[in-house]
Amino acid sequence: MPLAAADSEFLRQLVRSRSGIVLGEDKGYLLESRLMPLAKAIGMAGLDALTVRLRAEPAGQLARQVVEAMTTNETFFFRDIHPFECLKKLVLPDLVAKRGTAKRLDLWCAAASTGQEPYTIAMTMREHFPQVAAWTTRFIATDIASEVLKRAKEGRYSQLEVNRGLPAPLLIKNFTKDGLDWKVKDELKRMIEFKELNLLETYPISGQLDIIFIRNVLIYFDVETKRAILGKCRKLLRPDGYLFLGGAETTLNIDDAFVRVEFDKGGCYRLKG
Ligand SMILES: C[S@@+](CC[C@H](N)C(=O)[O-])C[C@H]1O[C@@H](n2cnc3c(N)ncnc32)[C@H](O)[C@@H]1O
Fold it and tell me: Are 141 and 152 in contact (CB under 8 A)?
């Protein structure tokens, strides 16, 4: 039975209010394809029954599962490559020089999905700035979705996943083969603390940060949500820190406290002044 318009509206509002993810009226097919497996898994015949339960318990575990099912978790190692070139050739040389006395770096990778992005950042640091291994580094990686975070923490990837963007020398150096999969070595895993964090809520991150990656997630939000999130990032970023967004994302006309730093085909953002 096709999804009723009122149920579709209810589900889209639920997802939006809890995660910020905006699903247009034309996304009924997406609701059906992502939520039918969940409905079946909990013994419900269809989305009408699921919606009845959600209306009764809009803030329960089921609502959480619905939101999680509606997240898009696409990611891969060295995604878009240019941000990581910018990190390696511009951002880390600058920060490593500036923080040489304090010997401390604070990083946050938000919307980290299954972990390929934070592991890419960690590999880039280890490979090109080995001296930082002796520093105090705090590297937090977060996501709203518990299932993807579980995978990120586990650090186990299939051959297909490591084939997507990970250069062979880095694979050999940082992973061990485990059956058909590859497992992130402990020394790399230990660099990152994975936690759940909803970008709509307050950020339980103490102190300030040198680098924030928040890529390919703002695209799912409306302008007001993007502005609120960028405002919170602005407060967390040290005055000389760096912000990385996805290729289709910008601070322009949303938060003009940021200025773009062009670097080759990539680039990032800094705070004005
Ligand atoms: C497309 S993935 C991007 C992964 C990675 N940053 C990259 O660029 O490859 C988007 C991620 O944002 C997460 N996400 C969506 N809404 C969120 C929210 N409100 N708070 C935190 N994470 C959210 C999703 O769970 C998903 O893992």
Answer: yes
Location of each CATH 3.40.50.150 domain in the chain: 82-271
**Most ligand 1 atoms within 8 A of CB, residue of 65, 113, 121, 268 to mutate:** 113
Q: From the CA of 199, give the closest atom in ligand 1.
A: 20
Q: Which CATH class is domain 82-271?
A: alpha beta
Q: Which fold would CATH assign to domain 5-69?
A: Chemotaxis Receptor Methyltransferase Cher; domain 1 (1.10.155)
Q: What is the pTM of this model?
A: 0.97
Q: Where in the chain is the domain with CATH 1.10.155.10?
A: 5-69
Concatenated DSSP letters of 102-156: TTEEEEEEES-TTTHHHHHHHHHHHHH-GGGGGSEEEEEEEES-HHHHHHHHHTE
- Ligand 1 pocket member 216 (CB < 6 A): yes
- Mean of the pLDDT values across residues 25-30? 91
Q: What pLDDT is recorded for position 18?
A: 97
The C-alpha atoms of residue 131 and residue 160 are separated, in whole angstroms, by 32
Find the 219 Cα to ligand 1 centroid distance in Å: 10
Does the beta carbon of 16 lie inside 6 Å of ligand 1? no
Nearest ligand 1 atom to alpha carbon 214: 6
